[in-house]
Amino acid sequence: MEQVLSHLGLLDKLRGRGLQRRGPCPIHGGPNDSQPTFSAHLGKHIFQCFHAKCRAQGNALDLWAAIHKLPVYEAALHLAETFHLPRNRETTSNRMLHWALRTAKVKSRLLIPVIRFSAGF
Predict the structure, then answer these.
(1) pLDDT tens digits, residue range 60-84?
(2) Distance from C-alpha of 22 to C-alpha of 51, rounded to nearest angstrom
(3) Which domain holds residue 30?
(4) Per the structure, how many domains does the chain have?
């Protein structure tokens, strides 16, 4: 999550100490939005917007998809390309395969390294 927020230029706009950060929502907010409706937990690698009309939430891959307005599968491919992540299962450990198949929204074994990255492993 921290790498994605940093790459998108959002990490410095969020306030807070430790693992919890808050600030304007990058998904629904505009350049003049100062309401701290967006929350990201860098340890759990999750985010949530508390704005009534947005309510976006998820992991780093979900955030990437929402900001780039892409379906999750295409966002995973885009994220892999952006961060130069391998997209084949030969480069993935069994632990990551198990985790990704158990918890990820995108269950394609081709995208396990992307899922691994979005979970912060």
Answers:
(1) 999 999 999 999 989 999 998 998 8
(2) 13
(3) 2-118
(4) 1
